[in-house]
Design goal:
Alpha-Beta Plaits, 4 helices, 4-stranded antiparallel β-sheet, about 140 residues, alpha+beta, two-stranded antiparallel ribbon, 6 strands
């Protein structure tokens, strides 16, 4: 199964406070362990929401709102992991260095797989998805 691990933002990360050398070293070691185990597929830190934008949809209308956004439910970074189970993902997450000085929080969410969409995900849509994934892989 594939999961996304969200590093929740803090007031410090939203203020643009950069991690210490010690934290960067600890995260680098953790990422090396994830890669060596074949778990990590991607991972990045994100700039504060002040540098971001949100697009709100209402029918055919689109509204753009520029950051900063309220701290609640904001994300400071993420990983994509391939694991055997949610329990495995939790065990890896428990090994993670605290991503922030003080209180830190990770959120783990399963990523939808093709099978999760049922009959609505027709063979034609599955083929299209595979073609797109191949193109993305080639472009990287």
């Amino acid at each position: 199964m594939k999961v996304i691990v969200l590093v929740k933002a803090t007031q410090a990360s939203e203020a643009g406070v950069m991690p210490s050398t010690e934290l960067l070293e600890a995260m680098g070691k953790f990422n090396e362990d994830l890669v060596a185990a074949g778990v990590m597929q991607a991972g990045e830190g994100l700039h504060p929401t002040a540098k971001g934008a949100r697009i709100t949809f209402s029918g055919e209308d689109r509204t753009v709102t520029h950051g900063p956004f309220p701290l609640e439910n904001t994300v400071a970074g993420f990983w994509i992991w391939k694991v055997g189970s949610m329990d495995e993902a939790i065990q890896w997450a428990k090994r993670c260095p605290n991503p922030h000085p003080g209180k830190g929080e990770l959120e783990i969410r399963p990523v939808f797989e093709a099978e999760d969409f049922g009959a609505e995900f027709t063979p034609e849509l599955r083929e299209q998805e595979e073609r797109l994934r191949e193109r993305v892989a080639k472009a990287s």
